[in-house]
């Protein structure tokens, strides 16, 4: 909250506001890109919190399994 104030932002509070969350509504039209974003995020997490080697192993696993997944989907269609 202090970072917002330092950046010149204002924080407003509206106690009567009602928010309805519709899960996945904004990403429904971009499912493939959303999945790719998830994988990229996981690799970044591993690189930051584990090691470069762990991130490379995870990346290799993701690419390998994605190939199997897409081949299986193509076969089932």
Keywords:
single chain; 77 residues; mainly alpha; 3 helices; flat
Offer a concise description of the structure:
This protein has helices at 2-6, 31-49, 52-76. It is mainly alpha-helical and 77 residues long. Helix 2 (31-49) packs antiparallel against helix 3 (52-76).
Describe it.
- The longest helix is centred in the last third of the chain and has 25 residues, at 52-76.
- The chain has a domain at 32-77.
- The protein has helices at residues 2-6, 31-49, 52-76.
- With 77 residues, the protein is mainly α.
- It is flat, with a radius of gyration of 20 Å.
Proportion of residues in extended strands: under 5%
Could you give the count of β-strands? 0
Structural class: mainly alpha
- Helicity range: 55-70%
Sheet with most strands:
none
N-end to C-end Cα span = 50 Å
Order of helices and strands: HHH
**What is the overall silhouette?**
flat
Low-confidence stretches: none
Q: How many helices does DSSP assign?
A: 3
Report the average pLDDT across residues. Answer: 85
Query: Any idea what the radius of gyration is?
Result: 20 Å
Helix and strand topology:
Elements: H1 2-6, H2 31-49, H3 52-76
Helix pairs in contact: 2-3
């Amino acid at each position: 909250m202090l970072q917002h104030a330092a950046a010149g932002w204002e924080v407003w509070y509206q106690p009567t506001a009602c928010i309805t969350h519709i899960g996945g509504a904004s990403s429904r039209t971009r499912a493939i890109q959303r999945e790719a974003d998830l994988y990229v995020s996981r690799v970044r997490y591993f690189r930051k919190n584990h090691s470069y080697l762990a991130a490379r192993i995870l990346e290799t696993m993701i690419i390998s399994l994605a190939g199997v997944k897409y081949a299986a989907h193509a076969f089932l269609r």
